[in-house]
Fold this sequence. Notes:
The structure holds two protein chains of two kinds.
Chain A: H1 3-16, H2 26-34, H3 37-53, E1 58-62, H4 70-76, E2 79-84, H5 87-97, E3 102-106, E4 117-123, H6 134-143, E5 145-156, H7 166-171, H8 178-186, E6 189-198, E7 201-203, E8 212-220
Parallel strand pairs in A: 1-2, 1-4, 2-3, 4-5
Antiparallel strand pairs in A: 5-8, 6-7, 6-8
Chain B: H1 5-16, H2 25-33, H3 35-52, E1 56-61, H4 67-76, E2 77-83, H5 86-96, E3 102-106, E4 117-123, H6 134-143, E5 145-156, H7 166-171, H8 178-186, E6 189-198, E7 201-203, E8 212-220, H9 235-238
Parallel strand pairs in B: 1-2, 1-4, 2-3, 4-5
Antiparallel strand pairs in B: 5-8, 6-7, 6-8
Amino acid sequence: xxxxxxxxxxxxxxxxxxxxxxxxxxxxxxxxxxxxxxxxxxxxxxxxxxxxxxxxxxxxxxxxxxxxxxxxxxxxxxxxxxxxxxxxxxxxxxxxxxxxxxxxxxxxxxxxxxxxxxxxxxxxxxxxxxxxxxxxxxxxxxxxxxxxxxxxxxxxxxxxxxxxxxxxxxxxxxxxxxxxxxxxxxxxxxxxxxxxxxxxxxxxxxxxxxxxxxxxxxxxx
Amino acid sequence: xxxxxxxxxxxxxxxxxxxxxxxxxxxxxxxxxxxxxxxxxxxxxxxxxxxxxxxxxxxxxxxxxxxxxxxxxxxxxxxxxxxxxxxxxxxxxxxxxxxxxxxxxxxxxxxxxxxxxxxxxxxxxxxxxxxxxxxxxxxxxxxxxxxxxxxxxxxxxxxxxxxxxxxxxxxxxxxxxxxxxxxxxxxxxxxxxxxxxxxxxxxxxxxxxxxxxxxxxxxxxxxxxxxxxxxxxxxxxxxxx
Lengths: 221, 241
């Protein structure tokens, strides 16, 4: 390609970018300041969840925080609803990512029903749920799902505890091994598939060495 | 007491016992001609084994010499391998005849009596089934599945066919694109999960660049009539619909 042909192309790119900037909320600003690679890991989890259970479906995310996963989930889904009890996070999510197909609700979702969804996703939430609320958490997933619904739950592996940051250790009160996550999901779904995630790589390798677990359940019991 | 390296290795060897595994013509040829292909093939089976889980009953359709079937047996529980070539069945039977959790049968899968399996898996089979027989093949799978059973199908991606050998091309009469494979499975299953395999890595990446496709079907449909498109149109003719 000659210089002359290149030039107009280059000039054409800039106008394509909208005059739009995003200022992240306090949670993701903190993450990006202190451990920026975490954004890659988290987006990888969302992308995998999106590929597994979001294509052209109406989806609910329980514990969406600042909605960082909503662009990926929303790209696949027909309609996205994110719930979180962190008021500040929801304000940020609405501002940054809200649109007619992507909406956010500030609420403590435990025990609540927001409609009939085709897929319910909850990443990095169950480890923060008190053990005595655990069954209520799963019941909440189930009561928001239609009969052909898919449930997707992701959480750090129990074996990752010694490597967790002090902040994580304070917040994590209910850690799961792969076996326990799979068997618990098995109480609610006939078919359950469990994957390991190390950094941004999703795999089916030796479960104890998986840093993170993501479990897909379908065929509601 | 100090023992030297050789004696220590001897202790290790003693623990291994004196078992033998026979590799049949197919696997031997593969291992010598394109060893990486054996790796890929085994990784598909490992993936299937992990998806099926433990304490399950699995039917492996088109099991070949049974090396992958043995992975399923070790990971999942009870496994039966079927293949229509007696020669390859003999290899599996020779190797694992002493094991109660694995069996082989030389049979045309479609004439196999229906049983209730927790999972039916088949790798490198569906691309060799002529499009007008796919419905029979899939119905055979459905009839062999327990109510809550899953099926796992692995087949080369249509886009990979530009790179395959002439021999492979001859056998491949029904190669699927990701979209058509998903659609095919959706006719029989409520839930369909599609994965890409590139070499030994199985992932959920951009489908056109998948070398190989692995699809999981769950919750078999009660009636095949409750889903579009018409069942009797061969896949080859549905491409542009």
